[in-house]
């Protein structure tokens, strides 16, 4: 299920604007990799290129290679819609379907993949996914209530349940805790830790403590100046990046001296 991600020499454009330049990185399966760096350095753009969400923006494109467990993500026969279903994404703001029930929210992605599903199978998927997202105990008696009836932290875990319901190969998380209170943040961080047994997780975060707490590896991105492309500056184990980085810029960013 979990897959490694190998990116070579990836350039990412919005029209003529080169937003991210020359990224080469190998992200191991069953691990958590954090993307850190100052605003505008291209973390979210790069993240979205890993499930072909980037190109939904008109004029957006990439040059280079992204290989997930041997499969070229941008190969000529690859359907981007299928890729987006296989590589789950969790966004900054929880985005459950507000009027849809909790039960149906969990199944929303799953139903796109499977044409028909027996009620007993659907029940099993809902229970398994909500348990994976550490939400089952809180909602099992109100599965028919709307998604919007949950707290922000619960809604974010519902979105994670929706993402894992389809058993994705990779889970991409773009600042998943930035709209959450500290208790909900801690619940999501615990969850990320548990999920890495089954998934390859990539998480964008502005929170250095969070990167240090949840990730095995950290990639630091930076840009020379506004309008210049973002680049991957340094990548390594989180322990090394936080305690003994090779690059001065990495050290300065981690110590809060810029960004
Ligand atoms: N839809 C878009 N159209 C054109 N340019 C864009 C678009 N989205 C982002 N950019 C540009 O691409 C560059 C990288 O942006 P991106 O959002 O990926 O950075 P980031 O590191 O995730 O920033 P932040 O930490 O502030 O979220 C920026 O210069 C940004 O202005």
TrEMBL record:
GO terms for molecular function: ATP binding; ATP hydrolysis activity; phosphate transmembrane transporter activity. GO terms for cellular component: membrane. Pfam families: ABC_tran (PF00005). Keywords: ATP-binding, Nucleotide-binding, Translocase, Transport. Residues 5-248 form the ABC transporter domain. GO terms for biological process: phosphate ion transmembrane transport. CDD domains: ABC_PstB_phosphate_transporter. NCBIfam families: 3a0107s01c2 (TIGR00972). This is Phosphate ABC transporter ATP-binding protein PstB.
């Amino acid at each position: 299920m979990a897959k490694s991600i190998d990116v070579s020499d990836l350039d990412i454009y919005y029209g003529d604007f080169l937003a991210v330049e020359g990224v080469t990185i190998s992200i191991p399966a069953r691990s958590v990799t954090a993307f850190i760096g100052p605003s505008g350095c291209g973390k979210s753009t790069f993240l979205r290129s890993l499930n072909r969400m980037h190109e939904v923006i008109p004029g957006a494109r990439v040059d280079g290679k992204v290989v997930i467990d041997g499969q070229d993500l941008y190969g000529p026969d690859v359907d981007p819609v299928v890729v987006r279903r296989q590589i789950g994404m969790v966004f900054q703001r929880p985005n459950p379907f507000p009027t849809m029930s909790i039960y149906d929210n969990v199944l929303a992605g799953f139903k796109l993949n499977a044409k028909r599903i027996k009620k007993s199978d659907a029940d099993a998927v809902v229970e398994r996914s909500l348990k994976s997202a550490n939400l089952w105990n809180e909602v099992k008696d109100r599965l028919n209530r709307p998604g919007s009836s949950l707290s922000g932290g619960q809604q974010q875990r519902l979105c994670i349940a929706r993402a894992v319901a389809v058993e994705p190969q990779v889970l991409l998380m773009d600042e998943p805790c930035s709209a959450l209170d500290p208790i909900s943040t801690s619940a999501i961080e615990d969850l990320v830790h548990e999920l890495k047994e089954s998934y390859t997780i990539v998480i964008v975060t502005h929170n250095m403590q969070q990167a240090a707490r949840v990730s095995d590896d950290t990639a630091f991105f930076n840009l020379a100046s506004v309008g210049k492309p973002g680049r991957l500056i340094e990548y390594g184990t989180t322990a090394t990046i936080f305690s003994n980085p090779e690059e001065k810029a990495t050290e300065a960013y981690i110590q809060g001296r810029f960004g």
